Amino acid sequence: xxxxxxxxxxxxxxxxxxxQESRSLQxxxxxxxxxxxxxxxxxxxxNGFMTQHEVQVQxxxxxxxxxxAHRPHTVSAVVSDLEPDLDxxxxxYEEADGAGAQLxxxxxxxxxxxxxxxxxxxxELAEDPDTPLLERANFLAIFASNLDEFFMVRVAGLKRRxxxxxxxxxxxxxxxxxxxxMIWARSRELMARHAACYQEDVAPALAxxxxxxxxxxxxxxxxQARLFTLxxxxxxxxxxxxxxxxxxxxPYISGLSLNLAVVVRNPISGHRHFARVKVPPLLSRFLxxxxxxxxxxxxxxxAPAHLEELFPGMEVLEHHMFRVTRxxxxxxxxxxxxxxxxxxxxxxxxxxxxxxxxxxxxxxxDPYVLNLLRxxxxxxxxxxxxxxxxxxxxxxxxxSRLDRPxxxxxxxxxxxxxxxxxxxxxxxxxxFAALREHDVLLHHPYDSxxxxxxxxxxxxxxxxxxxAIKQTLYRTSGDSxxxxxxIDAAESGKQVLxxxxxxxxxxxxxxxxxxxKLEEAGCHVVYGLVGLKTxxxxxxxxxxxGETLARYSHVGTGNYHPKTARLYEDxxxxxxxxxxxxxxxxxxxxxxxxxxxxxxxxxxVAPKSLRDGLIARINxxxxxxxxxxxxxxxxxxxxxxxxxxxxxxxxxxxxGVPVDVWVRGICAVRPGVPDLSENIRVRSVLxxxxxxxxxxxxxxxGEPEVWFGSADMMHRNLDRRIEALVRVKDPAHRASLSRLLxxxxxxxxxxxxxxxxxxxxxxxxxxxxxxxxxxxxxxxxARRRRRGKATP
Length: 792
What we know:
Elements: H1 25-29, E1 54-57, E2 75-78, H2 111-127, H3 133-164, H4 176-208, E3 212-213, H5 221-235, E4 242-244, E5 258-265, E6 272-278, E7 286-290, E8 293-296, H6 297-301, H7 304-310, E9 315-326, H8 340-351, E10 356-362, H9 367-377, E11 384-387, H10 396-400, H11 431-437, E12 440-444, H12 453-462, E13 466-473, H13 481-491, E14 495-500, H14 508-520, E15 524-526, E16 533-534, E17 537-545, E18 548-556, E19 568-575, H15 578-592, E20 603-606, H16 610-626, E21 633-637, H17 643-654, E22 659-663, E23 680-684, E24 690-691, E25 694-698, E26 705-709, H18 715-719, E27 721-727, H19 731-745, E28 751-754, E29 760-763, H20 775-786
C-alpha cells in the first residue's frame, strides 16, 4: 500500500546514512543483514536473562504430552534453568521514579478521531496523483471497507453503551455523546471527500486510460441491448421485489447490502406504493457493457425497461439507491455458554439483525422516500449520509484487479530467505538442518512465506521423525496449505494440537468451518481460554533426533495466511533455540490444559506479564539516561492507545529519553508537548503493503534489547487476549530490526508526522520538492539486488 514514488537514490558517497553512519543505504534496507554487516556485539550482561551454558536436562515427563512415552528421550539444550524469572531484575522498575507525579488531564488524543485520521491517510493515498491509477482505485475501496467496519464495530459499540447507560467519559476527556457527534461530523466530511475523489479525479483518469466507469444513460443503444439480454437471462431470475403495504410489512434490510427503493403507481386505482429490490451481492459489482466500459450492477437493474419487467402493469415513478450499515459486533457470554462453537454460530445468525448505525442514500433521493426509510429503519437525521452515486465504492476492488500492470505497482515476487535457499540440490532445503545452524529472521512479504513458514510446517507434516505439531490459527485462507499440512500430519499419526480462535472478527464462520475439518482429520482442536482471545502467532514442532527430543519454533507478528502474507508486512523468527521451544511448550500447555504459569524464558505473554514487562523496560531506560548510559525507546505497532504504556512513555520523555513510535493506525499519544512529550516523535507509514509488525527496542545502557510479536498497545490486546512477544537474541537480528525502526522514523523517509494537536501531516518530499525515500520500496529493491534484479 505504498504511494508510488521514484526509487530512492543512495546518498552521496561522502554522506553517511541517516540510519547508521557506517552502512550504505542498501545495507540499511536489507533485512536481515549478512553476518558481516552486524556490529561487533558488546559483552553480554546478565539482566535477569539466563547465563547460557550447555547442560543436559532429563525430563520426567515430555512436555508434548503422551507422545513417544515408550522411548527414552532427553532434551539437549542451551538452558540454565527450567523455571527462570525473566524479569527478576526488573521488579524495581515496575514503577518509575516520580510515578505518582500528576500528568496533565488532556494528555491523550481521542481514539475514534485518531482512527478517522488513519482512514484519512488511506484516502490521501487515493488522492495522490503519484500513486498508480488502479492502486488509487484500490485505496478508495479500502477506505470504504475500513469505514464500514468502523461503523459496524466502533460506532455500534458506542451507541450500545450510550443506550444501556454504561458509557463513560473517554480517556481524551470527551463525553460519549460528544464522541458520537464528532464521528458523525468528521465521517461526513471524509465520505464527501472520498466521493469527490472518485467522481472528479479517479474515474476521469481511468477513462483516459481506457477504463470507463459509466452510468446507464451514458451507454450506447447496442450496449443497453446487450445488457438487457444479460438482465433477462442472469439477473432477473434472482431478483425479489418486496412490496410495502398493509399486507406486506417493511422488509428486513441486511447490513451493507445495496438496495433500490422503488415508487410505483397503480394505473387503475392511482395509489402510490413503495417496494424494495435488493441488489444481489454475489453478482459482479461492475458489469462490462463493452470492452473497457463498465456500468454498476444497480444501474442495470434500475434501467426503465428492466424495472417494468419487475413491476409489470405498474407505472414506475422513481427509484433511489440506499445502503444500511448495522451493528455487526458479536457478543458471546462465554461463561454461560456450554459449547462456545454452538453459541457463536447462533450469534452469527443474530448478527444479520443488528440495529442500524448508518444510512447511505443517493443525494437525489426524494424527501418522502427518505423519511419513510428513516422511520422504518429507526435512524436519526445525523445518521443519514447523502452522497453522489454510485454508493458502496468497495466495488472498486474488482476494478483494481483488472489486468493492467502498467497502472499498478511494479510486480514484486518474494524470494526465499537466503538462509533457507536451496544450495546445489534439486530437492527442497532441509529447514530443520538450517535451524540447527542458526536462527532465521523473516521479514514478509520481502521474504517468501511459502518457502519459509509454510515449508517449515509442510516438512514437519511429512517428516517421520516429527512426533507433534502445535499451532495457533487466528485467521487463515479458505484453501490454506497450513490447514492441509496439519491435516496431513494428523492423518499420518502425528499428535497435532490446533488452537483455533473462532472469535476472530468477521472470520468466525470460516474458522468454524476449518475447526470442524481439523477435528474430523484427527487433530486436537481447542478454542483457548474462557474470556480471552488467542491472538499470538506460534508454531511448535517436536522431533525425535536420536535419543533426544528437539523443538523447533516459529514466533511471528502475522497470521498464518498465505495470501495476506504477500500483502502484509510482518516479522517472524524460525528457531531451534531450546528456551523458545520450552516457552512455547509451556504456553501451549496453558492454552490446552490447566496451567498457572505467568513467566517465561524468552517470552512476554499477555495478559499477565506483557504490559508490566514493557513498562519496566521503559522505566529502566529513564534510569539509564540519568546515569549517562545509552537509552532510547523505539516502538512499531498498529495501534497505541493503552494509557499505562503511554504514561510510561511520557515519563521517559520527561526524563530525557528519546522515544520513537511508528504506528500504522490509532495513536492516543500527544507528542511534542513541552514538559511532557517533547522527546517523543510519532510517525506513520502507509503504502502498497499493510504495515503489520510489532517491534519494541530499548537502548538498555548500551546493550540493546529487541522484542517482537503479536501484541498491539491496546486494552483488548493487553488485558483480553493471549499475546506473545519474543526476545531477539542474535546481535545481527537485533541490529537489523533496529535499522528498520530507525529508517522508518528518519526525516528522510516518506511518512506522516503526528503533531501535538492530533493532526497528521504528510511528509513525502523534501524542501526542494524531491521525493523522500520510501521504506517499502527500499526493502523491495534490497531483495532485488540480492537476486541481481535491482531497479535501474
